[in-house]
Amino acid sequence: MTGWSAKDIPDQNGRTAVVTGANSGIGYVTARELARRGARVVLACRDTTRGKAAEQLMRDQVPGADLRLATLDLADLASVRAFVKELPEDRVDLLVNNAGVMALPHRRTVDGFEMQFGTNHLGHFALTGLLLPRLRAAGPGARVVTVSSGLHLFGTVDPRDVQMDHRYRRWIAYGRSKSANLLFTHELSRRLTAEGGSVLAVAAHPGYASTNLQTAGARMEGRAWMERGAELLNRLLAQSAEDGALPSLYAATAPDVRQDDFIGPRIQLWRGAPARSVRAWWTRDDRASAGLWAVSERLTGVTYP
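Structure (tokenized):
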């Protein structure tokens, strides 16, 4: 694992990957590098215009890349179901649950969920469940990689108030949604292991990577000074999106990855080559993960086969 880079990604010819939020940041880099190694990559993007621009740039950077752009809005369960229904592939070897939002002012999804919990967790929970038969069809080697964050340490999901309806705090809500990603991975891993483990469920985080996530909340509220501050911190402290994508790519392709692994930068949850990352104890709690699973099935209407 020491010094691992994108050059170490194994050959991906014959594999189909779905990457959510593939139009920018670490999602773009993840999709591009998988395509560079020969994978057929479905770019699952909310904004079609930005998605088309990203697809063209990717084709310029990786001539001959096998790409397909598809619309997916994780904040709308109808969009999630439509994406799966319209996906022509009968098998999916790799699903990278990458898209997300961070520290937004209080907003609701189309279905009435708190935006961060609804997008970061519930949307991906529904997508994974609906694609699971196609992941199983891919056979041994299929993987689900869910992108969490070191900021999951801000707090676990409160079963009495999973969407922070009573006292919304944007950063705590973000941290809880990222804990939800890890609890989801833990429970999915447990269930997949029980059925034979042909599909691998793992999580990753980028450390502090310079993407548009840090500025989205400030821009949404029209707070120019906060947006400029976030941009300055990105320039001074963050690693690049290229480096931030390495844990996702490692989790998606490295041969030594195990069920329920959490891969991140090796230096203090921040930067460096991919390594197994520390995680909060509550993200491995069987009772908490099973409880969140039951709530997620009820809220999304998606029951895993």
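Residues 170-194 form the longest helix (25 residues). The first strand starts at residue 16 and ends at 20.
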